[in-house]
Specification:
Blueprint (H helix, E strand, L loop, with lengths): L1 E3 L2 E4 L2 E2 L3 E5 L9 H10 L4 E5 L2 H4 L15 H10 L3 E5 L15 H4 L11 H18 L10 E5 L11 H13 L5 E6 L3 H7 L5 E6 L3 H11 L6 E6 L10 E3 L2 H13 L3 E8 L10 E3 L4 E3 L18 H13 L20 E4 L1 E5 H5 L6 E3 L14 E6 L2 E2 L2 E7 L2 E2 L1 E6 L2 E7 L7 E5 L2 E2 L2 E6 L15 E2 L3 E3 L2 E2 L3 E6 L6 H8 L15 E9 L5 E4 L5 E6 L2 E7 L7 E3 L7 E9 L6 E5 L7 E3 L6
Parallel strand pairs: 4-5, 4-12, 5-6, 6-7, 7-8, 8-9, 9-10, 10-12, 11-38
Antiparallel strand pairs: 1-2, 2-3, 13-14, 15-37, 16-31, 17-30, 18-26, 18-30, 19-25, 20-24, 20-28, 21-27, 22-23, 22-26, 28-29, 31-36, 32-35, 32-37, 33-34, 33-36
Helix pairs in contact: 9-10
Length: 601
Amino acid sequence: MEAGSSQLLRRGIPHQILSGSVHYFRVHPQLWRDRLERVRALGLNTVDTYVAWNFHQDRADETPRWDDWRDLPQFIEIAGDLGLDVMLRPGPYICAEWANGGLPTFVTDTPRTAVRSSDPAYLAFVERWLDELIPQVAPLQSVHGGPITSVQVENEYGSFGDDAEYLAWMRDALRERGIRELLFTADGPTELMLDGGTIPGVWATATFGSDPSGARDLLSKRRPDEPFLCAEFWNGWFDHWGEQHHVRSAESAAKVVGDVVRSGGSVNLYMAHGGSNHGLWAGANHDGAKVQPTITSYDSDAPISEHGELTDKGAALREIFAAATGRAVSELPVMPGMAAVLPAQRIAVEPVADLLTALRPLTGSVASAGVPTFADLRLSSGMVLHRARPILPRGAHRIYLHDLRDRAYVFVDGICQGRLDDVDGSAGVEVVGHGLPVLLEVLVEDRGRINYGPLLGADKGAVGGVSIDRRLVHGWESVPVPLAGWGTDDLNDLAGAASDEAGRPSYDSAGLAQASFEIDEPADTFLALPGFSRGFCWVNGELIGRYDSVGPQRTTYVPAPYLRAGDNVITLLELESIGRAIELCERPDLGPSEPYVETFE
């Protein structure tokens, strides 16, 4: 692929990129081919994907994985088999509403390391990663007969910094390791962002959701000899817990896309198919006052929904892409039929272990004077149970969690005193003492690593410590709760912690609960949890993700590959209130909606 003289060329022939983003790490690998077939049937000729570094490597002493769900080459090869080109966006930072923006926490937690800069400590990490990544993808470039036709340098860097030396280093690092395809940068269409994110000799593209003519004019003034590409057209948007589901009308999206392609420009839909933030991979934003965790669904109001359905928006865009290639819609590849869905049913839930009864036996405790953070414990995600035995003076007092990141539950002698989050942690919870030592337990929950902005890589936990009134509490024993690493055996061990009735929770309290059901054949379903408050859900030992009654999403998509013929078990670690039943629904419910409004921050 070449981008010169205002014309994009593919193998010397004028070309228009009609692309859509699909993230392999958000789609179960057994569904990769199905979702890519749907992208092709949408009328697109290209698929775009990020590479999530932390999805492949969690610890510095581990070799990156490229198997099963992490088989990036297989995803790219499937795209190629279907006749799709691939725009590869290897980061190392990707944003993507993905935990920590795709950077492993062993990088961002390393003291005095300036991420996304020419800091030698950071570049050393990136060098080792690229030495592992590039050999996986370089053979799949178009020059070697593969589908990769373009590769991004970093990602929307102009929204973060102005280290031109770093961007030049990234460009050269890709070239030195064998990347031969067209390189590009992508930034918001403002002078500030383009000043910080573009680099000489690398194709400059824009990301936006509206005003394509304004973006085109700005880029053409700066790069008059380059073709126009909207590297991310935001035809929908993501959601935070506690907000509404963001939507964009088919008419609005189709108008902008039509304006771009009819004027000869290229476009990449972000997202063409969003998928899901299964596990604990959902990231978070920060608005300057509070953490804004991203929900489990990444449907993003995309043309192809989270469960693979062609939406009204998809149908409208399909007509535009057909026209752009001189075909009728009937001449496009056939859109695959929808997957089977389980019949709706209600399934009884059994509480099996009180929350603290289940967590207290966990091993791996760390003793320290102050409260350790997630970085201190080398924990990327999950929770930490902190324990101390301070004297609680007579009378009323307040327990404060200083500089609390996310959410925490405070227990005194096994009784929950209250829930605090990053906004009200400094308000504390009121307790009454009798001048005796108490068992103080603080369960801190990480709700998502920040993926965008200056707080990228921020630590998690009760960072400023815990105090009774103004007196700090010392002498802690802290147990990491690595939820993402648990499987069936671990969940069974937790359930076995309740060896007698005293260890079993009641409904409407916190704890571990299970439900089982039988099916003849696996099929898709949508899980609703009426009566539950917030927590984590496993299906047959696989962590599907978080749930939270604040919404917006009211159901969680469970693709058929998570289920099996015969008996299936759903396990719920509920932090506040166990419900009496779960529901398998035949349709998704992503909650009340509001229009997406474009902003450049």
